[in-house]
Amino acid sequence: MSFQIGDRVTAEYKTGVYYGEVVEMSSTMKAAVRILAVKEHPTQGDLHNPMDPSVAFFHQRRALSNQEIALMPISTIRLYSGVVPEYQDSLKRALSAQISKLSDMEAWARRSLQELDQLQQEYFPQSN
Description:
The chain is an alpha+beta fold. The protein has one helix at 87-123; strands spanning 8-13, 16-25, 30-40, 69-73, 78-79. The protein has 1 helix and 5 strands; from the N terminus they run βββββα. The protein has a 5-stranded antiparallel sheet with strand order 4-3-2-1-5. The longest helix has 37 residues, at 87-123.
């Protein structure tokens, strides 16, 4: 797909997804995109060891800033024709969504551990 300068798009940068505007096309299969809003906040931690909190360096990833220009792989860019939300509102919404998702995962993990402990007692009653 080809893009034109000024096209409104969604694009992925590292682990975040953004609403933006194409400001320049590059011959290296990338486009410079001006950030207008945040669709999905970047993932925290080591991407090579997902879900591992004990890695040597646990990355804190900030969302790209309002009006920041980043080179995005063209393969991650999609035309967008909807309403682009206001940057601060979109950042707050994206951050809240990620916090909620991780909180749900934490609750699921606690409940799963309870069930697995019960199964372990049933499977191996003499080991208690």
